[in-house]
């Protein structure tokens, strides 16, 4: 087990990466889970499924009591995000699920009573209050899912980006903090070109983050961007030309 890391700490807020078990690297795509605490309350981000539940739950308790988790934020509805949510609600009795109003109706299929446990995020995003601090839920639609959102804490200045910024490492390679961006971007390129919908979706997201003071970008897969690598990542994502549907159209036409 690799120990958790407090990525940022400011004015009583902590943004924490919740460790990883090396055994997970052989069982499926590697996922990152994060916890933001505001004093003694917390929000858990994309907690994952049964594969990682025991590890994430035990690590989380080093920083917060389960009953003090106020929100579980689900950036999009993939199984590596939502499939363990009924487990989480069983162990975190006061938590409310934050999910797009496009996707809440699917949660009963993973054992969730949507009449009791869900806060629906409108298409424009919203603010939530956690123990006196306002957090921003930022639209990132079609990056890669419709009803896709990110979470930003203006105190620690950490931006949880879901699948945006994801990297897929080759076998035998893993790290949690990006050191050499030019080396790292080759592990992101294929994922973004295949999973992100199109250039327009990126352009819309860039408008939504204008004016945010972002010191850290923390994706659900891959590695965390700090300081100057935040700027480099944003410049890189701007530079992508044809992705998703645009490339698929070319590929389909080539094969006909």
What order do the helices and strands follow? EEEEHEHHEEEEEEHHHEEHH
Structural class: alpha/beta
CATH C-level: Alpha Beta
Terminal CA distance: 48 Å
The largest beta-sheet arranges its strands as 1-2-3-4-5-6-7
CATH superfamily: Ribonuclease Z/Hydroxyacylglutathione hydrolase-like
Radius of gyration: 17 Å
- What characterizes the major β-sheet? 7 strands, mixed
Number of strands: 13
The average pLDDT value, as a whole number, equals 93
Counting structural domains, the number is: 1
Q: CATH topology, what is it called?
A: Metallo-beta-lactamase, Chain A
- Judging from the principal axes of the Cα atoms, what is the shape? globular
* Strand proportion: 15-25%
In helices, the fraction of residues equals 25-40%
Number of helices: 8
Low-confidence stretches: none
CATH architecture: 4-Layer Sandwich
Secondary structure blueprint with pairings:
Blueprint: E1 5-10, E2 13-17, E3 34-38, E4 41-45, H1 50-60, E5 69-73, H2 79-82, H3 85-91, E6 96-100, E7 118-121, E8 126-130, E9 133-139, E10 149-153, E11 158-162, H4 181-184, H5 186-195, H6 199-209, E12 216-219, E13 225-226, H7 228-239, H8 245-254
Parallel strand pairs: 4-5, 5-6, 6-7, 11-12
Antiparallel strand pairs: 1-2, 2-3, 3-4, 8-9, 9-10, 10-11, 12-13
């Amino acid at each position: 087990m690799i120990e958790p890391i407090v990525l940022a700490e400011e004015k009583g807020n902590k943004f924490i990466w919740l460790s990883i078990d090396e055994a997970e690297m052989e069982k499926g795509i590697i996922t990152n889970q994060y916890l933001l605490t505001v004093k003694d309350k917390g929000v858990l981000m994309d907690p994952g499924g049964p594969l990682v539940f025991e590890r994430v739950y035990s690590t989380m308790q080093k920083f917060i009591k389960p009953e003090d988790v106020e929100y579980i934020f689900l950036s999009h509805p993939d199984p590596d995000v939502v499939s363990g949510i009924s487990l989480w609600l069983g162990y975190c009795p006061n938590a409310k699920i934050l999910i797009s109003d496009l996707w809440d109706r699917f949660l009963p299929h993973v054992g969730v009573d949507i009449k009791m446990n869900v806060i629906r995020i409108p298409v424009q995003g919203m603010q939530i209050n956690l123990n006196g601090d306002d957090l921003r839920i930022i639209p990132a639609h079609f990056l890669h899912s419709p009803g896709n959102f990110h979470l930003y804490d203006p105190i620690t200045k950490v931006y949880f980006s879901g699948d945006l910024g994801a990297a897929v490492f080759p076998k035998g390679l893993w790290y949690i903090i990006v050191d050499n961006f030019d080396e790292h971007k080759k592990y992101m390129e294929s994922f973004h070109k295949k999973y992100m919908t199109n250039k327009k979706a990126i352009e819309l997201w860039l408008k939504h983050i204008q004016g945010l003071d972002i010191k850290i970008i923390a994706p659900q897969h891959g590695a965390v961007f700090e300081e100057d690598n935040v700027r480099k990542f944003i410049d890189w994502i701007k530079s992508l030309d044809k992705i998703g549907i645009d490339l698929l159209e070319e590929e389909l036409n080539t094969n006909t």
